[in-house]
Specification:
The chain has about 900 residues and is an alpha/beta fold. It contains 35 helices and 27 strands. One of its GO terms (biological process) is DNA restriction-modification system.
Length: about 900
């Protein structure tokens, strides 16, 4: 059989699977089915390999070529069939709109009705019903995407307007893949719902797939669709269109949006009826395998390639790499990626078509997100480990069952910081970090407050999280509701626990491993504590993103009653995570499903391919981080080589540059050929794998890998080395103060409030609340983004000895104190209300020295008027009409009765003495 004949057999199978009836020309029967593919049909330009009929009318051709043929040049041949004269062939348009070129392994498709017909690679053929449906449409999808009506911008932020506009421009240019980068908390999902609504309503998109990382994020996304009020119709999205959060194995045939994890979608494509729902709970990000072999996908007639017109991948860097690429590319759909932290792989997958770039700095400057300060805690054990002396009884705990036993140490036991909470648990190290956090909580971190802010702690493992929870409850003297663990092993539904943490007063502190590390919105969160290091820069930024969300003051007070407006969050770094080096993409196993034992055996019998060697090196590097010096010494003694050298040699043995260099030395030539480089590489790999020939060495590695006990160190005492804001936080505070002072200097002659404070004599400083409000509004707008809280906190870090007043609630009038302190008018920065209180006390004392005293009733009036000035700058007759306390006291009439004709004079004097 010829190569082209073999290709046709494959193509026949693809057509049959897609619902086509295949016939030879002399067996023509157009009534045999909705779609008939006729082989070797004669046209004026020659014989079409397949002429496609739908509903008895010709609609397209397939040009078949042998495997390996590059198809771009074949398009010219197909075009002759599509646009040539059609004699005695029933058709609707006078030409054939649909053209395919296929080798059976690779298939190209185009629609000549598109504004700019362009061939695109497709997984298989469209079903006849799809062609029939598309022939009835006046314009193609790509044509409709060039005719969007103007965007209704009501309810959209500027960054969201920009994202939707740029995406639709990308659609108009027929880019198959588009990437939107928007900072965490800037409203990516709302943006997505906005453009999905327009795709469905204005472009008549058949169905949109919305891929999420895990079920809890799917629930969150579904709620976004439920809450979305369409800007032109006024009804909710879900009142107009069916939205399915996929929890079974069937896609809703009338649904317009389908929300799913990629794991579940893959199981549906495979026809897996026994899919485990718990698989939807595990994030594919931190434990993902971007270099793993892609999942194999075969055509599923129940889920044809035209099932979705668009696929949105939320936080797409977790799912688009090699592992799931075939799942995404199975569908003939436009791909839209949403991410806050694009990696090189993400940009590459989306053809570097970054239609929106909105980073965290810009989001903070626009007031969309809040920034953060880093508070560093360094302890002796965290930094350098510890030693338990010999002859001590130590407790050991089995990691999984947590069963305990006692063992007498016959020699001293030393462990490093890298073994903490993996091989060794130092209770005092955990306790010291938590106690230090507690001691600084209401002084340095959140001064003047009494409620523990909503706090999220990142732990190394479920067992580590368990230990942290126990110690937090003890240190804070609180019950189970105060601090809870949110991990995959908690027992309750994760989304229920996350919702409780977000919306209820308790828990105040949640401890997680990675359940809440990405994608989950917890807007009232004000503090992140890192008790684990993170090596992936992308993942670290995602974890930081949990704290960046802004929150309405009313919603914040529902869970934290004494919190001021959230204008920053605190990162408590207990492990140096903000200082450690990070990789754009962590190297991960290429064979994640292969057990360590089989991997060692595979190398021992001579399987030395790149994937195997790289995976072994990665597993050993991971093991090296978990063991101590004693175990490393045992490995080195057994192998005759330091453990770190064994790992390094494995990595370098598969490095192409190393192979070329070794070939240069081995064959004494500057230009080794391919065979010499191959032989050199085999030599390097063989040398690197020599230690694994030893059964004793392999057994030792297996024993160390399967060690399941942790030493519970209850003996070592930890001590704080450092506890304070990081250099970066201080530098940001210095910059904030400098920018604030520069703002005042530049605007002292143009903003009324600054003019009054800066240049007018005290008797002429008649400042109003409205003028202070105007100043506040200008300060809050980009590029400044100043709030009283933000500037106050900056001064607390820069000039702590000159800042007084611990109240967490900054009033609008505190701007006066900030301006006066910045101008050097006051030696100390204190809340404006406290300044007014001091002035009032002096004024009363001076009046008494002059022989003027006030009655009890008059003092009550004066105190209320003083408090009003502290909150509103001044007092006048109109204030008695809306100030609740003044009204409760009897209003202006009662005040006149108390002071007689002297009331107006008293108010004027108070404004002059107590005011600016």
């Amino acid at each position: 059989m010829t190569p082209e004949g073999k290709a046709r057999i494959t193509i026949d199978g693809m057509l049959l699977a897609a619902g086509w009836v295949i016939q030879d020309r002399d067996e023509l029967n157009l009534g045999a089915g909705a779609g008939v593919a006729v082989r070797e049909y004669p046209l004026t330009e020659g014989y079409a390999d397949y002429l496609l009929f739908v509903d008895r009318k010709a609609v397209g051709v397939i040009e078949a070529k042998k495997e390996g043929t590059t198809l771009s040049g074949v398009c010219e041949q197909s075009d002759g069939y599509l646009t040539g004269k059609l004699t005695n062939i029933p058709n609707e348009l006078g030409y054939l709109p649909f053209g395919y070129e296929s080798t059976g392994k690779e298939t190209y498709f185009r629609d000549l009705r598109d504004p700019e017909p362009r061939s695109r690679r497709v997984f298989s053929f469209l079903r006849p019903e799809t062609f029939s449906e598309r022939m009835k449409q006046e314009k193609t999808l790509r044509a409709r995407m060039q005719e969007y009506p103007p965007l209704v911008t009501t309810g959209l932020r500027e960054c969201q307007i920009e994202a939707v506009t740029n995406l639709e421009h990308s659609f108009a240019e027929d880019h198959p893949r588009s990437l939107i980068q928007m900072a965490t908390g800037s409203g990516k999902t709302f943006t997505a719902v906005s453009f999905i609504y327009r795709l469905i309503k204005h472009c008549n998109a058949k169905r949109v797939l919305f891929l999420v990382d895990r079920t809890s994020l799917g629930v969150q996304t579904y709620k976004e669709f439920q809450m979305y009020v369409t800007p032109d119709d006024g009804r909710k999205f879900t009142e107009l269109y069916n939205v399915q959060h996929l929890s079974g194995q069937k896609i809703d045939p009338v649904g317009k949006v389908c929300i799913s994890t990629i794991q579940r979608l893959y199981s549906i494509l495979k026809g897996d009826e026994d899919y485990d729902p718990e698989s939807d709970e595990f994030s594919s990000f931190e434990d993902g395998v971007p270099n793993a072999k892609p999942k194999d996908v075969v055509y599923n007639p129940d889920i044809p390639i035209e099932t979705f017109d668009f696929i949105v991948t939320d936080e797409c860097h977790r799912s688009i790499y090699n592992l799931w690429s075939q799942v995404l590319e199975y569908f003939d759909a436009h791909l839209i990626g949403l991410t806050a932290t694009p990696s090189k792989q993400t940009l590459g997958f989306f053809n570097k078509n970054l239609v929106m770039e909105y980073g965290s700095d810009r989001a903070v400057a626009d007031g969309v997100n809040v920034g953060f300060d880093v508070f560093r805690i360094v302890t002796e054990i965290t930094k350098g480990g510890s030693t338990v002396d010999a002859d001590f009884w130590v407790e050991k705990r089995e990691k999984l069952s947590r069963d305990r036993r006692w063992e007498l140490l016959d020699e001293e036991f030393t462990y490093t910081q890298r073994q903490l909470d993996r091989n060794v648990v130092s209770y005092d190290q955990i306790r010291t970090v938590i106690r230090t956090f507690k001691e600084h909580l209401f002084t340095s971190l959140f001064p003047g407050r009494s409620e523990v802010p909503k706090t999220l702690i990142f732990a190394k493992s479920d067992s580590h999280a368990e230990d942290i929870v126990e110690i937090i409850r003890e240190e804070f003297g609180r019950g189970n509701d105060f601090c809870k663990k949110i991990t995959y092993r908690t027992g309750r539904k994760p989304e229920d626990m996350i919702r409780e943490f977000r919306s209820s007063y308790n828990p105040r502190i949640a401890v997680t491993v990675d359940m809440v590390s990405t994608g989950v919105d917890i807007k009232p969160l004000e503090c992140l504590i890192f008790m684990r290091d993170v090596k992936s820069q992308v993942y670290f930024e995602q974890m930081l993103g949990r704290g960046t969300r802004t929150v309405d003051i009313t919603d914040l007070h529902q869970v934290t009653t004494d919190a001021p407006a959230k204008d920053r969050f605190i990162v408590v770094d207990a492990v140096g995570v903000c200082e450690s080096s990070k990789n754009p993409q962590v190297v991960i196993d290429k064979k994640p499903s292969v057990s360590f034992k089989k991997l060692l055996e595979s190398v021992a019998v001579g399987n030395h391919d790149n994937a195997t060697i790289t995976t072994l090196a990665t597993r050993l590097a991971r093991l090296d981080r978990r063991i101590g010096d004693r175990e490393r010494e045992e490995i080195s003694d057994t192998a005759g080589t330091p453990f770190v050298e064994i790992i390094k040699t494995l990595y370098t043995s598969v490095d192409p540059d190393e192979a070329r260099e070794h070939a240069t030395e081995l064959f004494a030539t500057e230009t080794p050929d391919a065979s010499q480089i191959k032989e050199a590489k085999e030599s390097l790999v063989s040398t690197a794998c020599e230690p694994f020939d030893s059964p004793k060495f392999r057994t030792l590695l297996l024993d160390l890998k399967t060690q399941s006990e942790q030493v519970l160190d209850k003996v070592s005492e930890d001590r704080v080395i450092e506890a304070g804001f990081s250099t970066d936080a201080k530098e940001r505070a210095v910059l904030t103060v400098a920018n604030f002072r520069q703002f005042i200097e530049e605007n002292k002659d143009s903003i009324t409030a600054l003019q009054i404070i800066y240049s007018r004599p005290k008797r002429e400083r008649h400042l109003t609340y409205e003028q202070i409000r105007e100043l506040s509004d200008i300060l809050a707008k980009p590029p400044y983004g100043f709030t009283p809280d933000k500037v106050w906190q900056a001064y607390e870090q820069v000039e702590r000895n000159h800042v007084r007043g611990a109240s967490p609630h900054r009033m609008l009038t505190d701007i006066i104190s900030l301006v006066r302190f910045s101008l050097g008018c006051d030696d100390y920065l204190e809340p404006y209300r406290e300044t007014v209180d001091h002035r009032f006390e002096r004024w009363i004392a001076e009046r008494e020295e002059d022989g003027i005293t006030f009655s009890r009733e008059q003092m009550e009036w004066l105190t209320i008027m003083k408090d009003h000035i502290g909150a509103s700058v001044s007092i006048g007759p109109d204030d008695f009409e809306y100030n609740q306390r003044l009204m409760q006291k009897g209003g202006l009439f009662s005040a006149h009765r108390a002071f007689g004709d002297g009331l107006n004079g008293i108010m004027a004097e108070l404004n002059e003495v107590l005011g600016v």
